[in-house]
Amino acid sequence: MHVWTTGFAFERNAVFNCPNYALQMEFIRHGDASCNWFRNCGSPEDTTAAIVTGVTFYNDVKESEIHHNEFEWSWFAVSLGSFVDSTTDFHHNHFSHINRVVDVGVTEDHRGPSHPNFNYNCIESCDYFNIYMNACSINDLAIDARNTYWGSASDGFIRSRFRDCNDATSIPPCPCVVYEPFLTECDAAEAGICGD
Fold it and tell me: What is the pTM of this model?
């Protein structure tokens, strides 16, 4: 589903086996995606750089919430284009068996940084990066990702799952993921699909 509607809501859906993005939100104000179950979207075996697919894609999204969703067995869970700013909140989502949880990119016109809030989420059994900062000359703002469970209570493990300011090889240097304080366990009652 590809949407451009202000006030858009995508709620209480089960989306399985989609070959590309299950949900694409572009030029959205006051959007809401909540209580959805996404499984096996974006070709989990796809490892080619030429085909970037995932579960959800956001571009120029403001004053919106993505919360209480379940993301399972997919390649990217959250792909960001340009201008997804800190008025957009990703919170209380559950991610499991995802290759890259958040991929911070840009759109083709490279218009501006994406730096949404990413708080109170639960990440378990994810294989690769939890947050991966791309195009750091454009995405030059820190991401607030505090109070999230990252799959371990080890600070070293958590930092190893970011491509951010701790990556000395990135030129120019990437901004930081602000992850402290972090949760030491997943609160399954709070993160994931809505109970009622």
Answer: 0.92
